[in-house]
Amino acid sequence: MDSLLELQLGGNQLSGTIPRMPLKLTIALNLSTNLLEGTIPNDLSKLTALEVLDLSNNSLSGKIPTYLTQMASLTQLLLSNNQLSGIIPQFNPRLTFDANGNKDLFNATTSKTPPKSAKKRKSVNIAFLLDESVTKALVIGFAVGIVIGIAISRKWVVELTAEPNLFVWACESM
Question: Residue 96, SS3?
């Protein structure tokens, strides 16, 4: 085999660790939505022509390997919803990167704990309560709108049936 463009194995309930991949894999490796565990193996660094790496929605743990920052052809890296931890390496700005859902993963510029000077935000639930008169007005307005709509449509139907050619024209234009 001269080359393998894509290996799409997402959503297959594969379990265990990430196996060794064919070195001739050049475009995309999708192992998302499986049952994979363990760390991201160093063998993936040998896939130098890989453009898309999707390891999302597994149970991968450990740190994001720094060799991923040096894969020049990589344009999309999806690591969301795993159990990764530590600091997110600095990636090329042209790389699309998603690591949401890894609760122990954080940026190098932020810390795990918020600064003491940071104020905690309180969530506020806002409920709009309609009093009885507003509710009645809404119901009456809705009912009047329905009655007017029915009256107009009945008049239109009567006009269409009274003039057969008009009825045929109306049906053809729909």
Answer: strand
Cβ-Cβ contacts under 8 Å for 31 (sequence gap 6 or more): 9, 10, 14, 18, 54, 55, 58
Q: Give dist(CA 44, CA 22) in Å, integer.
A: 10
Contact 44, 53 (CB under 8 A): yes
This model's pTM is above 0.70: no
Q: What is the pLDDT of residue 142?
A: 74
List Cα–Cα distances, 129 to 132, 133, 134, 137, 138, in angstroms.
10, 12, 10, 14, 14
Q: How is residue 19 written in tokens?
A: 């196996």
Provide the mean pLDDT of the chain: 80
Cβ neighbors of 96 (< 8 A, separation 6 or more) are: 75, 76, 77
3-state secondary structure of 95: coil
**Has residue 122 got a pLDDT over 60?**
no
